[in-house]
């Protein structure tokens, strides 16, 4: 890791990437996007073999998304300008935007290529050098991406991918005195540790996208309750619930609770759980035995707190010996119950009821997290009031998931700080420098 950081620093300082014309960087990133698309199936299969995401989803969410992300920031490179300040006569105030230097990036195992691209593309577009550490259990697709980047023309030392454990490689990256900015997607406890490492080293800026316990609020006047049930099931059970913005808390109006929960359960029963490389599979594997045991531990605590396991709750034993879990719905959940407040990161949906808009809003905001949310209603005023009142970085209305690169993704409260995606992501990777000139 120390050698990789040194290589990144050397590459940044000599300007082989940081000081070339923006249009030249654009051409390289477009070539990289072309190569990602050319190798899409290989990249998707490498990721699936690591993390168990169902292949049909992986193709779109990993290489498909990554190629689009690199194209988006390639096109942004030469459209971000400095500023001329409105100064008094006799002076000229200029605001320059410059690359920060060396960026350290630590990404998770659930969508390594997609989330890796969210970090790499804007950082490289801005002219920085990057050292990226994948998760221990999902590095293959990012190692392949580094090969493709070299083939596309990213100069030596500009992009470095270093595998290893968080406790060794991750700590070395976060403690480095030569990393200017650290970006991370993952758990809250690790995010806290990275902030400590920043304080103990060079006070590098740290941007965190952490966990979520996202509410999905369904009112009785939803425009299409059948669609809401189907999308709600997909919003928690796809990729075995291993999605940071997963709608893991279903908040449903009391008057439709029984029928709506049964509709969600109906759609969940139709999902085929199994081998993620089988094209007929809808829900793939849980990432690891540790994650599976954690998921099942939440089910045990739900039973002990008097919650009802309305669907699933068990491990599925496959001939492969892999880690598979039934889509699970837990009802009779109170706002203080463990399963209502803590992120499971598995195919587990908790259900709570409400009677008024104010009660729905209180339940939605009743956790430490604030990453995403959903609202289903035909009432335009209610929709706007819920968007305004929910403390989360993303609020979906009459849909769940699927936002593209044009809009930011970031958290509120303990779901983190800073933003991935959109032009706002560039802010993390650019420094502002004022030139104050007497004329």
UniProtKB/TrEMBL annotation:
Matching PROSITE patterns? ALDEHYDE_DEHYDR_CYS, ALDEHYDE_DEHYDR_GLU
Q: Name one Pfam family in it.
A: Aldedh
Gene Ontology terms for molecular function: aldehyde dehydrogenase [NAD(P)+] activity
Q: Which InterPro entries match?
A: Ald_DH/histidinol_DH, Ald_DH_C, Ald_DH_CS_CYS, Ald_DH_CS_GLU, Ald_DH_N, Aldehyde_DH_dom
Active site residues according to the UniProt entry: 209
Task: Write out the entry's keywords from A to Z.
Answer: Oxidoreductase
> Cross-referenced CDD domains, in alphabetical order?
ALDH_GABALDH-PuuC (cd07112)
- What positions belong to coiled-coil segments? none
Q: Where is the Aldehyde dehydrogenase domain?
A: 2-434
Q: Which family does it belong to?
A: Belongs to the aldehyde dehydrogenase family.
Q: What is this protein called?
A: Gamma-glutamyl-gamma-aminobutyraldehyde dehydrogenase
Organism whose genome encodes this protein? Shimia aestuarii
């Amino acid at each position: 890791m120390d050698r990789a950081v040194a290589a990144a620093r050397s590459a940044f300082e000599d300007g082989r990437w940081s000081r070339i014309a923006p249009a030249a960087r654009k051409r390289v990133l477009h070539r990289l996007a072309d190569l990602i698309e050319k190798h899409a199936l290989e990249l998707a299969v490498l990721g699936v073999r690591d993390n168990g995401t169902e292949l049909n989803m992986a193709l779109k969410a990993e290489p498909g998304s990554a190629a689009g992300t690199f194209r988006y920031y390639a096109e942004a490179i030469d459209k971000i300008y400095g500023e001329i300040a409105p100064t008094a006569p006799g002076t000229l105030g200029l605001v320059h935007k410059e690359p920060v230097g060396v960026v350290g990036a630590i990404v998770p195992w659930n969508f390594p290529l997609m989330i890796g691209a969210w970090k790499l593309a804007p950082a490289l577009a801005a002219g920085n050098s990057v050292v990226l550490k994948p998760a221990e259990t999902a590095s293959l697709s990012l190692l392949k991406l580094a090969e493709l980047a070299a083939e596309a023309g990213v100069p030596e030392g500009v992009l470095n991918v270093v595998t290893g454990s968080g406790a060794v490689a991750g700590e070395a990256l976060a403690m480095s005195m030569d990393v200017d900015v650290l970006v991370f997607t993952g758990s809250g406890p690790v995010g806290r540790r990275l902030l400590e490492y920043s304080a103990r080293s060079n006070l590098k800026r740290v941007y965190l996208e952490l966990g979520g316990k996202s509410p999905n609020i369904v009112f009785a006047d939803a425009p299409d309750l059948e669609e809401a049930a189907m999308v709600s099931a997909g919003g928690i059970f796809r990729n075995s619930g291993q999605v940071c913005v997963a709608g893991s808390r279903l908040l449903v109006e009391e008057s439709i609770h029984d029928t709506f929960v049964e509709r969600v359960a109906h759609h969940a029963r139709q999902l085929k759980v199994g081998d993620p490389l089988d094209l007929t599979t809808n829900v793939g594997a849980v990432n690891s035995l540790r994650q599976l045991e954690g998921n099942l531990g939440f089910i045990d605590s739900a039973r002990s707190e008097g919650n009802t396991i309305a669907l699933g709750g068990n491990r599925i034993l496959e001939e492969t010996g892999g880690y598979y879990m039934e889509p699970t719905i837990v009802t009779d959940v109170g706002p203080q119950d463990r399963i209502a407040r803590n992120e499971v990161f598995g195919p587990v949906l908790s259900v709570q009821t409400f009677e008024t808009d104010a009660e729905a809003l209180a339940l939605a905001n009743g956790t430490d997290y604030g990453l995403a949310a959903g609202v289903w209603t035909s009432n335009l005023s209610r929709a706007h009031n819920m968007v305004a009142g929910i403390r989360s970085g993303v609020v979906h209305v009459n849909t769940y998931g699927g936002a593209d690169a044009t809009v930011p993704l970031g958290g509120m409260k303990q779901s983190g700080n800073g933003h991935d995606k959109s032009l706002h992501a560039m802010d993390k990777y650019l420094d502002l420098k004022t030139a104050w000139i007497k004329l």
